[in-house]
Each structure stands twice: as C-alpha cells, then as structure tokens.
TrEMBL record:
The gene is rng. This is Ribonuclease G. Keywords: Cytoplasm, Endonuclease, Hydrolase, Magnesium, Metal-binding, Nuclease, RNA-binding, rRNA processing, rRNA-binding, tRNA processing, tRNA-binding. Its cofactor is Mg(2+). It holds the Pfam family RNase_E_G.
Length: 489
C-alpha cells in the first residue's frame, strides 16, 4: 500500500490531499486572505513605554506598533499542569523594558482595525505532539489527558528531551503515542529554535525571526513520523521551499519530494477533485447498495446507516450485519476526509445479535486506528446508538468551502409554497386591522404568486370579501420562496 501527499498551490489558496492506496483520506485547505500573523516571532524595538498603562509599544516592522503588556513579559501557561512551576511577579513596566531596547516577542493576537498586534515574551513553538518552551526546565502535560498512568509515561519519556534549550508541554494528541514519534517531534522543535536564535543574532531590529508555517510546510512538519512514499507539489516555488525546509528540519522527507509538471491538474489524479465535491453531500453511497446520511450540526454530527438497495444473499440479520461492517470503513474515512470533530452519534442498523454488535465496534475501532486525530468510542447505548468523539483539530471541509444558505439560513429546509401563501393571507388580515388602507398589493416569489392566483385564488377571493378590500398579487422574480411583502395602497 502506498501513501502520498498531493499539494496544489495557486496564488490565493493552497490545498493538500492525503491519498492512501489510491483513495483520498484527508484534505486540507488554506486561503491566503485568512492567514494571520499569530505565532510569528520578531526581533522588535521598544518604541514607547507607558507606565500609566503598564504597557509598551513595540515596533516589529508592521504598519502599526504592537502592544506588549507587563503581564505578557512574564512566562505563563494556561490549562497545563506543570510541576514546580516558577513563580514570577509582573513588575513595573518601566523596570522591565526601556525605550530603544531590542526585544524578542511572539504575536498572540492579530492586528484588528486601529489596534496593533498583541505580543508576549513567553515564546512557545508547537509541533504535532509537543509545545517547546525555550528556557524552561519543565515537562507539562495537557489536563485533557486524564489517565495518571499515561501522564506519567509521557512525562518520563519527554523528561529525557529537556536540556539547556528548554522544556516541553505534552499536547493532548500525544496520548498513546510512542517514544520514537515524540523524540522526532522534540528534535524538530529544537532544530527550529536553534535556527531562530541564529537569526536573532544576525538580524537587525524589526526583523521577522520565525513565521508560523504555511499549510504546505505545516503538513510536512505534522507528518513527521508518518510513512509516506511520495510528496508531489505542482508549484515550482513551493517545491523549492519544501526542499529547503525538509533538508533543514525534516531530512527524511527530502528524497520523496517531487515537482509535478504534468498536463493534468494534480487534483485530477486519483479523482481528488470529485471526491472533495462528494464530501460536501449528505449522502454517501456504499458499494453494496447501502448508504450513509451525514448531518453536521453545531452540537454534534449524526450518521445514519441504511441498507438501501442491498438485499443480501442469506437472511435479513446477515444483510444488516454486512451493511454495518461496510459502513464502519466508510465512516472512518468520512470523518477524516470531512474533518468532523466533537461528538459523533452513529445510528447503525439495529442488530439483535450481541456478537454482531461486538464485531461492528471492533471493525470501527480498527478503521479509526489510522486516524491521526484522537478518537474515543463509548460503545452501543441502550437505544442502539454508538457514541464517539473525535478531536477537533481544524475547521471541517464544509465550513471552509461553504457558507450559510441565504434562503433557509442554515435550517436545511424552506417553507412550502402552500405555507407561505397562508402566511401572506394572515399578514393581510393583520395589516388590515392595524392600518387604514383602501387596498393591498402582495409582492411574492413566482411560485407563491402563481399559487395565490391559481390553486388558492378562492381563498384570496374569500379574504377580499371578509375585509371588504381588493388584493392584487404581483410576481417578484428576485424574491426567494419565503420572501414576500404586503403593501398598503
């Protein structure tokens, strides 16, 4: 089985596809217009010190001076249990920095409107499993890793990586990860930090020392320790960046990087473009004839399995079992492909045999084993539903590529033409009681107007008799089905 990354680069957007055995498994999209500077490090120069605000303005080479508060000069780490944490007290800003001083800072908040970026001197460098803390001698563990045994295992492994350069925070994604992967992450972060220190010494003030990596480089970083046979990129400039980056930080990937200069668009390989379009649909067809219905809501994602046209060859129970087994493979792939995170409720077709339930759960666990995001399966509930969670690492592909429907406003349904017609009739009565008018004009969408003048014309006539006034209907082709106006004349 072969695994490869396809990287498609245009002036406005970068897209990455992970293809395993010829099948699309993951998609990543980044648009240049949405990229900020959070995470970037600069060698700044203090331009003003404001004791009254306990803050300083720092020139980092941007249009507006950035803001550094006294409390942000003191190292602080939230939501992490760090043993023997040092206790710092923020002092007077005038004692911490002085005007004209060069200082190394990191952006924690993008510039917004008239406000400059927000800075900190508490530098951190993230990778897939770890966060590097320069100058620290501690190992912290995310509080979301609840198992005390696992926390101690991770601390023991990462304790060996701490040296004069700094310490580490172990991220939630590291739960269950082996020592080799953690060591590769630690080595990568130290190489990056050494490069930052070299640039600090050789660069003038107001220079960028480190930029949060673009998608193409982040992908290379995050796939450290993952087996890949080939990485193909269709941009010569990006390819050269990747070669330079991998040679310096991820040498194991240098040999498998390729510049793709083919006539076919790179995402037409392995049918990636069409697969992305299919990933935006609710329905996912299974080879057997069954299908999934996937609904993503704000609270959770629900997945319903149906046998569809699959009738099986033996009996109903066997047909249901085979459909559910096939669905586990598709569900695992769709969760990765669509990047669905948070709570996921799966409604498998009801199975009477407990052994069948056990085998379906085992099949789902095996299918999810390849997922780089952490998953947790709770098993079948009393209602026959499987509850699981998947760590939310980034926006879903639907949220990146799609927006709210202007007609239904996210409901997923629109009122029927009949419903809107009756709303129009009620609105005429309401307006007639509230205001004095000689007659009314109704502006409505084509379908609603046609029904009011056709099937519901008798209802409109009865209403005219009831209120004693004439009502005219005017078609407004630009109106959506639910949109209408009742105008007094």
């Amino acid at each position: 089985m072969s695994a490869e990354l396809l990287i498609n680069v245009t002036p406005t957007e970068t897209r990455v596809a992970l293809v395993d055995s010829g099948i699309l498994q993951e998609t990543h999209v980044e648009r240049d217009a949405r990229r900020g500077i959070v995470g970037n490090m600069y060698k700044g120069r203090v331009s003003r010190v404001l004791p009254g605000m306990q803050a300083a303005f720092v020139d980092i080479g941007l249009e507006k001076a950035a803001f550094l508060h006294a409390s942000d000069i003191v190292p602080h780490t939230e939501c992490v249990d760090i043993t023997e944490q040092e206790h710092f007290q923020a002092g007077n800003i005038a004692e911490l920095v002085r005007q004209g001083q060069d200082i190394m800072v990191q952006v924690v908040k993008d510039p917004l409107g008239t406000k400059g970026a927000r800075l900190t001197t508490d530098i951190t460098l993230p990778s897939r499993y770890l966060v590097f803390m320069p100058g620290s001698s501690h190992v912290g563990v995310s509080q979301r890793i609840e198992s005390e045994e696992e926390r101690e295992r991770l601390k023991e492994i990462c304790g060996d990586f701490v040296d004069e350069l700094g310490g580490f925070i172990i991220r939630t994604a590291a739960e269950g990860v082996g020592a080799d992967e953690l060591e590769q992450d630690a080595a990568f972060l130290k190489r990056v930090w050494r490069k930052v220190l070299q640039r600090k010494e050789s660069s003038p003030s107001k220079s960028k020392l480190y930029a949060e990596l673009n998608l193409a480089l982040r992908i290379i970083r995050d796939f450290v320790g993952t087996h890949l046979d080939r990485i193909r990129v269709d941009s010569r400039e990006t390819y050269e960046q990747l070669v330079s980056f991998s040679a310096e930080f991820v040498p194991e990937f240098t040999e498998i990087l390729e510049y793709y200069a083919g006539d076919r668009p790179i995402f037409d390989l392995f049918d990636v473009e069409n697969e992305i379009q299919r990933a935006l649909k609710r329905r996912v067809d299974l080879k057997s004839g069954g299908y999934l219905i996937i609904d993503q809501t704000e609270a959770m994602t629900t997945i319903d399995i149906n046998t569809g046209a699959f009738v099986g060859h033996r009996n109903l129970e066997e047909t249901i079992f085979n459909t559910n087994i096939e669905a586990t493979q598709s569900i695992a792939r769709q969760l990765r492909l669509r990047n669905l995170g948070g709570i996921v409720i799966i409604d498998f077709i009801d199975m009477a045999d407990s052994e069948h339930q056990r085998r379906v759960l085992h099949s789902l666990e095996l299918a999810l084993a390849k997922d780089r995001a952490k998953t947790n399966i709770s098993g079948f509930s009393q209602l026959g539903l499987v509850e699981m969670t998947r760590k939310r690492t980034r926006e879903s592909i639907e949220h990146i590529l799609c927006g709210e429907c202007p007609t239904c406003r996210g409901r997923g349904t629109v009122k029927t033409v009949e419903t809107v017609c009756y709303e129009v009739l009620r609105e005429i009565i309401r307006v007639n009681r509230a205001y004095d008018a000689d007659n009314f004009i109704v502006y409505a969408s084509t379908k609603v107007a046609e029904m009011l003048m056709g099937e519901e014309s008798h209802s409109l006539a009865e209403l005219e008799v009831f209120i004693g006034k004439q009502v005219r209907v005017q078609t407004e082709p630009m109106y959506s089905q639910e949109q209408f106006d009742v105008v007094l004349m």
